[in-house]
Design goal:
The protein is mainly alpha-helical. It has 12 helices and 9 strands. The radius of gyration is 21 Å and the shape is globular.
C-alpha cells in the first residue's frame, strides 16, 4: 500500500501540472484519495499487542485510570506514555536524561527574576513556588470570576505579568513561556488532573466537545477519528494515542524542543489540511478544557517526552 506521504506528493504533482479545470478535478481526486486512504491506512493495520508495560514514568504512580463518569466514550483512559517506544519512555523515566528539564530549570530561574515597571518577580507575590504553585497545574484551565472566562496557564501567567509586574506579555511559544509553564506544571507532577467542568465552565466544555467531534479540513477528519476510533493502531511508524493532555508542555523528539498543547493542536489540524485556530484562541482554550476533563484522573507528567 502506498504511504500517505506518497499520495500527498502525487496529489500535489497532479495539481501543479494541470489546467484550471484539470486542477480542480485533480484536487478533488487527490483529496478523496487522501481522506479514504488515511482512514483505511489506520483501520487495516492491526492494533499492536506490543504495547507492553514498561514500568512507570518518573514521579508517576499510574498511567491508566477509569473514567470518573459514565457519560464518556472511553472505558479506560491512558496517558500518552502507554503508546510510546521503549527508547522514548527511557528518556522520560530519568529526570537527568529528560531533555524537557532544561526548560523546567530555566522556569525556576525566571520565577525569581525581577521584570517590568514595578520591579517585581513572581516570587515577590507568590514566594515559595514549591508551596504556592503545587497543584495549580493540575487545575488549569480555570475560571476567572473577574474576567468572566476561563484562563489557561499561559493566559494566567501573562495576566500576572501585565497587571502584577507591569511587564510585557510573553509570546505563547516563547522559551520564557514554555519554561514557566513547564516549571509550574512540574510542581504538580503525580497529581491527578482535576479541571472544573461544571458551572460557568460547562459551555466551554460543550464548545470543546463540539470541536473535538467536528470533521474539518481537506481530509474531512475530526480529533475523534484518530484519538478515539483508532488509538493504539499504527499511523506510519508510530502508535496513535488517546490524545491526552497530562504531559504538556512536552518535549517532542520531532520538534527537538519543548512545545505547548496548542502547538500540538495546530500540528494535528495541519495534518488533516485544515486551517488551524490560533494558540490562545477561544476555540483552542475550549478544546483544552474538554481534553482536560476527558482525561480527568490522569497524573500530570510534565515534562513528558513524546515522539
Amino acid at each position: 500500500m502506498l504511504s500517505v506521504a506518497t499520495l500527498e506528493y502525487a496529489g500535489e504533482e497532479m495539481i501543479m501540472k494541470g489546467t484550471a479545470k484539470t486542477k480542480a478535478l485533480s484536487a478533488l481526486f487527490a483529496v478523496t484519495m487522501l481522506s479514504a486512504t488515511s482512514i483505511s491506512y489506520m483501520q487495516t493495520v492491526k492494533a499492536d499487542d506490543g504495547l507492553k508495560d514498561d514500568g512507570l514514568p518518573s514521579g508517576i504512580s499510574k498511567v491508566m485510570v477509569k473514567p470518573t463518569t459514565n457519560d464518556g466514550p472511553l472505558d479506560e483512559i491512558f496517558s500518552g506514555w502507554h503508546f510510546r517506544s521503549k527508547e522514548t519512555k527511557n528518556l522520560q523515566k530519568d529526570d537527568f536524561e529528560n531533555p524537557g528539564y532544561l526548560w523546567v530549570e530555566q522556569g525556576e530561574e525566571l520565577w525569581a527574576t525581577k521584570d517590568g515597571s514595578k520591579g517585581k518577580s513572581c516570587k515577590s507575590c507568590h514566594d515559595d513556588a514549591t508551596k504556592a504553585m503545587k497543584g495549580v497545574g493540575a487545575n488549569m484551565p480555570k475560571w476567572d470570576a473577574k474576567l468572566k472566562r476561563p484562563l489557561t496557564l499561559e493566559q494566567r501567567i501573562n495576566t500576572c505579568r501585565t497587571q502584577g509586574l507591569g511587564a510585557k506579555e510573553w509570546k505563547w511559544e516563547s522559551s520564557q513561556m514554555l519554561s514557566m509553564t513547564a516549571f509550574i506544571r512540574n510542581l504538580s507532577r503525580g497529581m491527578p488532573m482535576n479541571v472544573q467542568a461544571d458551572g460557568p465552565m460547562k459551555p466551554w466544555v460543550e464548545k470543546g466537545k463540539n470541536i473535538y467531534y467536528t470533521r474539518v479540513g481537506q481530509l474531512n477528519m475530526s480529533c475523534s477519528n484518530c484519538h478515539e476510533d483508532n488509538y493504539g493502531k499504527y499511523i506510519r511508524a508510530d502508535h496513535l494515542s488517546q490524545g491526552q493532555s497530562n504531559g504538556f508542555p512536552t518535549y517532542r523528539l520531532k520538534w527537538q524542543k519543548l512545545g505547548s498543547l496548542h502547538r500540538r493542536f495546530k500540528g494535528c489540524m495541519k495534518n488533516i489540511r485544515a486551517t488551524p485556530y490560533k494558540p490562545g484562541s477561544d476555540e483552542f482554550v475550549a478544546l483544552e478544557i474538554y481534553l482536560s476533563q476527558r482525561g480527568k484522573g490522569l497524573e500530570i507528567e510534565t515534562p513528558a517526552v513524546r515522539n
